[in-house]
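Quick review question:
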């Protein structure tokens, strides 16, 4: 229980600290407004030129709300890989390791605390902006509930992906390139701009088998089409991938600690 209280305190402090950066919050919300407006106009043109009202079960209003959900997820992310990279390069990781805390769990608690604040602020703004641009979404209350239930697993899975990238700092000089590659994989293969159902049929089995859709497309799809069976399947997939990523992160972290010991750390 004492350990849980420690990590809860870390998450609480991290969340409160994020509220201090009003300028950063404002710029993020302005960017969100611009992005949603651009994509609203884009999808209106796509539907108009195709002379259809729906693509793969999505109407133009659905697409705006889908994009509002995916942008909310990704604009609230905290790139823990950059924090780990800095800790390793500056030697601050040595200080963290002597504390009576697990370094990965410390980073997880800090990440979730900060992200909880970001998702509430960004999500509230996204609902207002999407309503202003396209009108109210169908099943808004149920969609928000299912979306919220899918987010914890998505956040932990996304954290573990960045954790694996960040831990590579023990072997490479700069993880910025790997962070960029991972973030773009999540954006493209996770379905940020386009639901996975609208991908070419030949690649759909591949992208749906990858973990990235469980971070972005899965929760966003539930917001548009709230369905208990789809939620259950998504949660199972998230847990499976969290298990896989956790085992990989544990193995890499053990090697990193061994590397510190070999170098006299």
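Suggested answer, residue by residue:
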């Amino acid at each position: 229980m004492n350990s849980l209280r420690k990590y809860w305190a870390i998450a609480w402090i991290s969340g409160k600290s994020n509220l201090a950066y009003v300028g950063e919050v404002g710029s993020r919300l302005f960017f969100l407004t611009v992005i949603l407006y651009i994509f609203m106009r884009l999808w209106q043109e796509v539907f108009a030129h195709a002379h259809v009202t729906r693509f793969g079960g999505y109407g133009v209003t659905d697409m705006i709300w889908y994009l509002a959900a995916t942008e909310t997820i990704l604009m609230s992310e905290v790139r823990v890989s950059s924090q780990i990279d800095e800790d390793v390069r500056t030697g601050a990781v040595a200080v963290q390791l002597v504390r009576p805390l697990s370094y990965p769990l410390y980073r997880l608690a800090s990440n979730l605390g900060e992200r909880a604040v970001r998702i509430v602020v960004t999500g509230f703004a996204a609902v207002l902006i999407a309503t202003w641009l396209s009108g109210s979404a169908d099943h808004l209350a149920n969609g928000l509930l299912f979306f919220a239930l899918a987010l914890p697993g998505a956040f932990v899975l996304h954290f573990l992906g960045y954790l694996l990238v960040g831990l590579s700092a023990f072997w490479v000089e700069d993880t910025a390139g790997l962070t960029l590659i991972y973030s773009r994989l999540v954006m493209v293969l996770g379905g940020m701009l386009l639901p996975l159902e609208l991908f070419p049929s030949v690649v759909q089995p591949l992208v749906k088998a990858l973990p990235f859709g469980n971070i972005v497309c899965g929760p966003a799809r539930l917001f548009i089409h709230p369905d208990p069976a789809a939620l259950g399947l998504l949660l199972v997939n998230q847990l499976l991938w969290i298990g896989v990523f956790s085992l990989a992160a544990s193995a890499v972290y053990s090697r990193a600690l061994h590397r510190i010991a070999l170098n006299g750390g």
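Why it works: The first helix runs from residue 2 to 18. Residues 2-262 form one domain.
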